[in-house]
Amino acid sequence: MSPSPRPLLACVEVGGGGIQTVLLDGPAAEVLPGAHRPAGAALLIAVPGLITGSRVLAASNLGWYDVDPAEQLGLAGPAGLVLNDAEAAALGESALRGGTDLTYVGLGTGVGGATIADGVITGANLLGHGGSFGDRSCPCGRTGCLETVAGGWALPDPVTRYEDVATAIATAVRDEPLATAALVVVAGGLSRRHPGLVQAVAGALPDRLVEASAAPAGAKSAAAWGLAAAWDRVAEAVA
Ligand SMILES: [Zn+2]
């Protein structure tokens, strides 16, 4: 039996700053504001929170605790797949580069880190809540987390001292045993608004290749492509 063709994928990315849907039809992508599930499309969701199966156990930025995300979004469920947003974005950066191994650094309100090897997530919830970067307390309860010097909530707006932020990120990457990939992708809303930050991280990590997100213009992140890659992997396993 030949594999059935991939359906239209409605990839919904939920963030503190808004919701975006990327419709993936083969290689074609259409970016829409808000949450959408066209008839016949498979629903895939990325959420900044702790996921188990197709439920969101906790997404504190959204006030979601043990919920069905499709229901919260007012869409017909259940979702075919739900992933943490940083993990989906990290998978997507790899998928958009043909499956490259990489370390993902997501700079937004918080700092999300993940590692990808051979197309799968090998480390999650990395970087943001570790390290000893000063004496500022973090909402997580620790003191001196990377987030207290590199998270959007902790930085002045506009961000001015790129070098200080970049040095801290470079230290966190070097100190993370799982973050050994040659490629480091610096993505997220903060890096989009401040492209100089990516260059500063490149300067602070001269032994690595440091790149900005490969997500197409208009998409908030590569999460949709990560959801699609994870979906393909599940479909392959079932076939
Ligand atoms: Zn913390």
Explain what you see.
- 27% of the residues lie in helices and 30% in strands.
- The chain contains seven helices and 13 strands.
- It is globular.
- The protein starts with 8 loop residues before the first strand and ends with a helix.
- It folds into two domains: 9-84 and 217-238, 2-Layer Sandwich (Nucleotidyltransferase, domain 5), CATH 3.30.420; 97-212, ATPase, nucleotide binding domain (Nucleotidyltransferase, domain 5, 2-Layer Sandwich).
- A hairpin with a 3-residue loop joins strand 9 (102-107) and strand 10.
- By secondary structure, it is α/β, with parallel strands linked by helices.
- It has helices at residues 69-73, 85-95, 147-150, 162-175, 189-193, 195-204, 223-238; strands at residues 9-15, 18-25, 28-33, 42-47, 50-52, 55-59, 64-67, 81-84, 102-107, 111-117, 120-126, 183-187, 209-212.
- The mean pLDDT is 93.
- The strands form three sheets. It has a five-stranded mixed beta sheet. Strands 11-10-9-12-13 form a five-stranded mixed beta sheet, sandwiched between helices. Strands 5-6-7 form a three-stranded antiparallel beta sheet.
- Helix 2 packs across helix 7 and helix 4 packs across helix 6.
- The structure holds zinc ion.
- Zinc ion is lined by residues 129, 138, 140, 142, 145, 147.
Question: What is the strand and helix layout of this fold?
Answer:
Layout: E1 9-15, E2 18-25, E3 28-33, E4 42-47, E5 50-52, E6 55-59, E7 64-67, H1 69-73, E8 81-84, H2 85-95, E9 102-107, E10 111-117, E11 120-126, H3 147-150, H4 162-175, E12 183-187, H5 189-193, H6 195-204, E13 209-212, H7 223-238
Parallel strand pairs: 1-4, 4-8, 9-12, 12-13
Antiparallel strand pairs: 1-2, 2-3, 5-6, 6-7, 9-10, 10-11
Helix pairs in contact: 2-7, 4-6
The structure holds zinc ion.
Zinc ion binds at residues 129, 138, 140, 142, 145, 147.
